[in-house]
Design brief:
elongated, 2 domains, 3-stranded antiparallel beta sheet
Length: about 110
């Protein structure tokens, strides 16, 4: 088995892209990102969220999720931009609520 060749490494965000050999496909580009810190941050934000945080404010936008870079671009290719296909994005956040930063019903 061949040794994987690292193309990009970003330890600060736990991201790595590499070339690996697959028996069936040959050389394959693989992207990996450790999402533990992102899930912990999203959980802390979700626990700190309160229904009144948007009360009496002109800031009518609310952060709803922390999505890892690798997953974001995969979802972007699958669903399009969030403003183009919000229902699919909200459905993904509801199904993967470990990345949600709010308890508001989406």
């Amino acid at each position: 088995m061949a040794v994987p060749h690292i193309i990009t490494s970003r330890p600060d965000i736990g991201y790595e892209s590499r070339l690996e050999y697959d028996e069936d496909l040959g050389v394959v580009g693989v992207q990996r990102q450790n999402v533990d810190a992102i899930k912990e941050s999203a959980n802390a934000q979700r626990n700190a969220w309160a229904p009144t945080t948007m009360k009496n404010t002109q800031d009518h936008r609310e952060k709803v999720a922390d999505i890892p870079v690798v997953m974001y671009y995969e979802l972007l290719a699958r669903f399009g931009r969030p403003d183009q296909n919000p229902k699919a994005w909200w459905k993904w956040v509801r199904e993967n609520n470990a990345f949600a930063t709010t308890r508001r019903a989406l």
